[in-house]
Amino acid sequence: MALVRGLMAAKKIIGGSVGGTRKETSAPKGFLAVYVGESQKKKQRYIVPVSYLNQPLFQDLLIKAEEEFGFNHPMGGLTIPCPEDTFLTVTSRIQG
């Protein structure tokens, strides 16, 4: 069930605009932009492959984002409320 919610949230976000100009918000085909950080003012933007959406470790981050923000993300895109080093650890584990 969490996978379905995460995929639906990502689909909504990918289809929508993140705010600002199109050039800043676009991600290459097959990727999506996520904003990572615990502070509202200090979010770092990352581009990740959409294949990460199928990974249990990444899904845990999506669940945390859903619990904190629901589907109304303050940055206009997918915001993951975790320390940046945690996000980097998760993505490096997914990469192998």
Span between termini: 26 Å
**Total DSSP E strands:** 3
Oligomer: single chain
The rough form would be described as globular
Low-confidence stretches: 1-23
Percent of residues in helices comes to 40-55%
The strands making up the biggest β-sheet line up spatially as: 2-1-3
Number of helices, where a helix is a run of at least 4 consecutive DSSP H or I residues? 4
- Structural class label: alpha+beta
Strand content: 15-25%
pLDDT average, as an integer?
76
Family: Belongs to the ARG7 family.
InterPro entries: SAUR_fam
Protein name: Auxin-responsive protein SAUR21-like
Keywords: Developmental protein, Growth regulation
Tell me about this structure.
By secondary structure, this protein is α+β, with helices and mostly antiparallel strands. The protein is 46% helix and 16% strand. It is built from four helices and three strands, in the order ααββαβα. The chain has a three-stranded mixed beta sheet. The longest helix has 14 residues, at 2-15. It is globular, with a radius of gyration of 12 Å. The N and C termini lie far apart (26 Å). The model is unreliable at 1-23 (pLDDT under 50).
